[in-house]
Amino acid sequence: MNLKNKRIIISKINQIGDVICALPLASAIKKLEPSAHIIFMGTQYTRELIEHYLDVDEFANWNTIYQDNDEEAAVKQFQALQADIIIQVLATRPGDIISRVAKKAKIPLRIGTSHRLRNWLTCNRLVNIGRSQCKYHETQYDMMFMQALGGKKHYSLQEIIALRRFKPLTKTPRVQSLLDPDRFNLILHPKTRCAHIEWKPEQYGELIRLLPTEKFKIFVTGSKAEGDIVREAMLAPFPHVVDLCGNTSLSELMELIQNIDGLVCASTGPVHLAAAFNVKTLGLYAPIRPFHAGRWGPVGSQASSLSLSKKCNDCRNKSFCPCIWELTPQQVCDVLLRWNQEHA
Predict the structure, then answer these.
(1) In angstroms, rounded to a whole number, what is the distance separating the alpha carbons of residues 169 and 250?
(2) H or E segment to which residue 115 belongs
(3) How far apart, in whole angstroms, are the C-alpha atoms of residue 164 and residue 143?
(4) What tens digit of pLDDT does each residue of 57-78 get?
(5) C-alpha distances in angstroms, 173 versus 49, 106, 183, 184, 223?
(6) I need a surface site. Which of 98, 176, 184, 305 has the fewest CB within 10 A?
(7) 7-163 and 173-343, same CATH topology
(8) Is domain 173-343 annotated with CATH 3.40.50.2000?
(9) Helix or strand or coil: residue 107?
(10) pLDDT digits (tens, 9 = 90+) for 6-31
(11) Is the pTM of this model over 0.90?
(12) Domain extents for the chain?
């Protein structure tokens, strides 16, 4: 396919981790055709992340394109983007709306998965990408859209790591002043959008107790509401821990993650940020599909995951997966102490 000077929209409008999984698509397209103009469509929430990716030429904000459910206004804004191609990576109801708007805007080539029924009405190039079996990582599924542009279908995780290209973040006095050059700077990010597959705050609290204060400077990150949930177990008993819950912008959190020595959390945006920034990353995962590390674990040259080695079918009919609670604070502590030795 001739992609010379083509304007290509990559659409993935959900959360930080999802966006990080899709960003290497931009790099693969640029590698195939450097003159292609990449427009990545996300939300205001992920804007700062997307704008710090080297192979994205333009950011399109779905929040401003589709306001007040006004589809006709969205069509006009799509037309203004003058796109030749749109890759609809998101295979959910919001993705159906985007595909419909793209068709009304008469974007010539509209690519989507054949496993989404409504795509048969709105997309004119369908790719056989079925995620239900969880055979691959989410970022590998996203990369499968390359086959519609003349690229290959399967990328290894190592190939995807090599494709990623983030801009260095500007160092700010506030964030830099938080770091301790004489200790291992560690972020604990305890909460996720999937509370049924995360460690308990009390387990993080026990981990903090186990880590020697003379060797580790610990930061707890999250939203203000998340800070309220974990404060009693993770912050109140430990005055040496730095509480950053609700106290950083996304760009500040990204800068902090780029400059720390290590991060521990479950399946949520910061675990993917740290892995992508080549920071020592430990993801804590429940073994239940499709939330397991094989599908959503951190992908990076210094990233690893802890999870029980079991088929987690017993949790299918529960509102939570207690298997992640069987990972002990001592197990995590042992990893962090090893990191600290390597760091020294």
Answers:
(1) 12
(2) none
(3) 12
(4) 999 999 999 988 899 999 999 9
(5) 20, 47, 19, 19, 22
(6) 176
(7) yes
(8) yes
(9) coil
(10) 999 999 999 999 999 999 999 999 99
(11) yes
(12) 7-163, 173-343
